[in-house]
Amino acid sequence: MKVDEFLKSDPIKKAKLDARLDTLANISEMYQRFAANLFAENSLTDNDWRELVEILLNDNLSIGKTTFLIRNFCRNDRKLKGKDAKVLNDIIYGRLVSFDVFCQLLIKLKYYSTLEEAKAYVRYQIGLDLGLMDEIRKSQQLGIYIMWSTFDPKGDDPFGDPMPDVEELISSLGLERVTSPYLLFEYKLPPNVGPKIPTICDSYAGKSWSRYFYRVGENAPYGMTTPTDTSLAKEGRPEVVHEVIKAENLVSPLRRA
Amino acid sequence: MANNTKPPSTIADLNSMTRSELRDWIEGVLNGYVLVAGNDTLLPHIFLLQTYKELDPKVQLVFEDIVLKFLSDLAQNPNSHWEDEPGDELLLLISNIFRNTFRSKDPVDLLIYILEKRWRLKDKDVNLHWRAAQCLIEINYRAKPQFWIDIFNKGGSEYSSLVFSGLTLSSLFDAFNWLNKEISNTSVFEAFIARLPLLKEDFGSAAISEYINRILPFIPDSQIDGFLKLLKNLGIQTVSNILSNLKKNDLSRLARQFQIRINIEQFKGDICLTIEKFLFTQSSNYTFYKIQSSDIKIISSISEYVLKNPISLAQDFRNYFAECGEKIINDVDKSDQFRFSTEIFIIREKGIDVTHQLEHLEQLEPVKPIEPLDGGC
């Protein structure tokens, strides 16, 4: 259900919501994107909208508190709310992550005692044949909370063949450039993990919100990224979200982008 | 909405903030009240670290003072509002900021205070006690070995990686001594594995292999194959690596050595025993024990036992010594003196009966009297 549909019997509330979202959209590009995505969202239930609209229409909340409550609403039970993405079976998914950020993630997950230790281990794993990966590492998560992945709808290499320049890749995936080098992950989803179309709840559950998340329309088979810099990449790439998977699901050695 | 002021959007905005504005902003980001634009993997502390690096040096100092103040609250205020996920992000931020500053020791006392006095933080949803210990290691604080051992004894296996890392900061010798004692604990072993690539980067493979040779005998059987594979991938040479390059025919050479050594031992007297277990193999098929002893009775009984029961050797080793050699092993453990007077090699091929091979060798090379050696225990 869309929010317009939810509020169709209450035009006053609808007008109030429009005004509130206008206020938010004027704050920054990030909130502008949020407002647009809210109207495009179609996977929330009646109850979900009731809760979310109530947060947005509360006059007594600061922007910070409002966004804090939206975030809490979005991360509620961490369940993916999107519809199943229409994707070929058994295809390879890909993910591009900054080396530093990935190592920080491993620290957050308490897999290593120091950042340098994590970095040394990841360096060791780069290019390492998967058959040589030790059992301890196989059980480590590749993400936290949820994971976003790209893929090729025809089932080819998720990053393209030949792979584009890394700057183009970063931009086409809608990622904000950081200074450290990037790592490429390629994996298959285990049978119990299905790809979903990303929703606003997936995008706005964290303490950072993407300025480039674009909620696709009702009939879209899967999500699409928005390029961060159209001079580097003219088009986005297919994307899905899914539950966090482990290193044992990698299908090719970790490599630098 | 109340307080609908725009958040700072540039570094210049932050540089021009007052101290209290900057404090509120940092606190807001850590708590999620101030949203930041970024990818889904951009955790608050990573964002703040990136921002901190771009600030004017004078503002960086203010930034450092502010997060130290937050840490002080977490450490000393029993009702601190940092006792949850925001506190986790705060400690991660402090680790990252103070690791590389000339003020790296500034958080030490507050972190030690948490470690010593705030054990109850361990039982929260987010274990901030653990994170504080990690923070102490990240800023390279070299505590006495006993400090870390006490934390392990009180905190348990969850602290294994921190304790091993903390010990390595001060002394590899202490770290491996502790490892020797605790290696049968899976968490400790995993902690060691996780740090191995960094140890190799920091100290070089030659230095590390010396220490690894000391602990090889004590690595649990279930872990040894994977461990040897890891060493090989990392390019760390060990006794096992060297032995693994022997061809299968060399088995007989080792077995011969086994017999010869036994005979040497027949001329020695004092009690002194140590056992080391090395695993060698090309295909993980062999377990190789090196027994060093100068006690003829022990040697004879071991050799007799091994020749009769080569397959069950690993499993029964302890039981066997419990019967005939416990006292001696205990004596050696206590004195911690290793006397390398002689050697016996025993080979076990996993899943394959090698008894006949040993017996065959015995027939081929009957025991010959050998000149007694000088020395001994």
Structure in a nutshell:
The complex is a heterodimer of chains A (257) and B (377). Chain A is an alpha+beta fold. Chain A is 36% helix and 12% strand.
Provide an overview of this structure.
The complex is a heterodimer of chains A (257) and B (377). Chain A folds into 2 domains: 3-77, no CATH class; 93-256, no CATH class. Helix content of chain A is 36%, strand content 12%. Chain A has helices at residues 3-6, 11-27, 29-40, 46-56, 63-75, 99-108, 115-125, 135-138, 166-172, 200-203; strands spanning 93-98, 146-151, 182-187, 208-209, 223-224, 238-243, 255-256. Chain A has a 6-stranded antiparallel sheet with strand order 5-6-2-1-3-7. In chain A, helix 2 (11-27) packs antiparallel against helix 3 and helix 4 (46-56) packs antiparallel against helix 5. The longest helix of chain A has 17 residues, at 11-27. The termini of chain A are far apart. The model of chain A has no long low-confidence stretch (mean pLDDT 92). With 377 residues, chain B is mostly helical. Among the domains of chain B are: 146-245; 247-364, no CATH class. Chain B contains 19 helices and 4 strands. Chain B has helices at 11-15, 19-31, 44-54, 57-76, 85-98, 108-117, 128-138, 145-155, 160-170, 172-182, 186-203, 205-215, 221-234, 239-244, 250-265, 296-308, 313-324, 326-335, 355-364; strands spanning 36-37, 273-278, 286-293, 344-349. At the A-B interface, helix 2, helix 5, helix 6, helix 7 and strand 4 of A face helix 2, strand 1, helix 3, helix 5 and helix 7 of B. Strand 4 (208-209) of chain A pairs parallel with strand 1 of chain B.
